[in-house]
Design a protein that fits this description.
alpha/beta, 3 helices, 5-stranded parallel beta sheet
């Protein structure tokens, strides 16, 4: 039986390596040992990631347009389609509040410091 393919948003790895970035890094480092049947599929919600793939996990898929444009569009409609970015995955994990509009299960991580600010 093939493993579960989980798309993991690695966009936080493009910024300062603290907080969310550390969580993402530790998650990716730990998965092979704690969940060998899970195959992480890294993706970045950033066009600039295409120019910094060496700074991201191997095989990272990057958005083809600026993140701000995509996020504003996704808040209104499910276009542009993230299909190519997330093709072939079973679950999508948004590591920093955002998950593209997809037709499969999703999970979102809300950092504790941000959770304390919400209601």
């Amino acid at each position: 039986m093939p493993g579960l393919r989980v798309a993991v948003d690695v966009t936080p790895l493009l910024g300062v390596q603290a907080g969310v970035a550390q969580c993402v890094r530790h998650l990716l480092d730990a998965l092979p040992e704690v969940a060998p049947d899970v195959e992480p599929v890294p993706f970045a919600l950033s066009r600039r990631a295409r120019h910094r793939l060496a700074d991201l996990p191997a095989g990272t898929r990057a958005l083809s347009l600026p993140a701000g444009v995509a996020l504003r569009a996704w808040s209104r409609v499910d276009r542009p389609s993230p299909r190519a970015l997330l093709d072939g995955v079973d679950v999508v994990h948004g590591t920093n509040f955002v998950v593209p509009p997809v037709d499969r299960p999703t999970t979102v991580t809300v950092p504790k410091f941000a959770a304390g600010l919400v209601g």
